[in-house]
Each structure stands twice: as C-alpha cells, then as structure tokens.
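Why do we care about 3D structure at all? Because function follows from shape, and shape follows, mostly, from sequence. That is the central idea of this module. The next example makes it concrete: a single protein chain, its amino acid sequence, and then its structure expressed as tokens.
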Amino acid sequence: MRPFLALPLLLAACQLSLPPLPGIGLRELKILDKTVTVAAPRGYCIDPDASVDRGEAVVVLIGRCTAGGQVAAALLSMTLGEPGSAGVLAAGPETLAQFFTSTPGRKLLARDGVAAHVVVTEAKVGEGSLFLRLTDQEAGDYWRAISGIRGRLVTISASGAPGAPLTPEQGFKLVLETVELLERRNPDHAPPARPAIP
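And the structure:
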C-alpha cells in the first residue's frame, strides 16, 4: 500500500468542519504561483483569508456567497497536494475504491481516525477520479472526490451547515462541479469522463 502513504495529510486537510462563509464574493483564485486556477460553483465563493497556499500543498475553502443565497448552505474544502502526489492515482480509481473500503483506508477517511466510525456507502468512478459517499460518526453523510491536476493529488469534500445537512444529490453535485471547474480552468489537463449525477 506504499502508493497510499501520501494520502493522510490531504485527507486530514479536507476534514474541516466550519460554517458557511457568507459575503465573500471571490469566484476564482490563482494558486501555486498562479500556475493553477481554482473556481467555485455557481452561488459559492472562495474565502482567500481562510485558504492556505504554502507553495507545496494548498487548502482552499469555499462557502455560499451570501447567507440568503439561492443555493444550499455548504462548505467545500479542496486540498491540492505537493508535486507528484497524484502518483497514487496511477493504481486506478477502482483500486483506490477497494483501498478505502479496507480497514486502513477507512481509518484514513474517518474524522476521528477510527476505521469503525466511517462507512463507504457509495463509490462512483470517472476516468481518473473517484467519488466516495461516506457516513462518518463525527461528520454525518457527505461526498468526497479524489482526483488529480498537473501531477498534484486533489481531494474535495462538501458538507452542509449545522442543522441543515446536504442531501446526497446536493453533495455529489457540488463535488462533481468543483472537479469539473478545476479541469476547465486548467485546460492543459484533459477533462475526463464523469459519472452521471444520480
């Protein structure tokens, strides 16, 4: 399982549990010395103050642009790993899906690090990407995407607001749209086929 050793830091960075971020207004952000552009889905905005770009790994937080917006209150957290970290995807998304249903994989996914506290309830595979629906004792039901851009591993998770969880359809749509936006804003990365929205 050596290819999966790069995953713990990235997965931990997507385990943030913050409220939506109203009144931000930034729809796109150039990161990694302006070599990669990230974008928020319609109705959502990037919080540059809460995001972290250290040149190696990057964490970007995205929330609803306005508190009374027409979209669900949600927090998206996106992490881009260090150069070469996307090498874990060489095993293929199907192999990654098998790993994440194992005890070591579920331990990585669990918010509290206890494998028994998280269940992979659904997995969708698109060319080069993996989408996992998780039920976590700490975080509830949510979707996480695992993909790659320019040699960097990307993980994206979508969580609802306290007392207003996202439906499975909303969560999947948000992570899917965020991955697709990342690919479209970085055109040297060929956009892969994606699973259909349920």
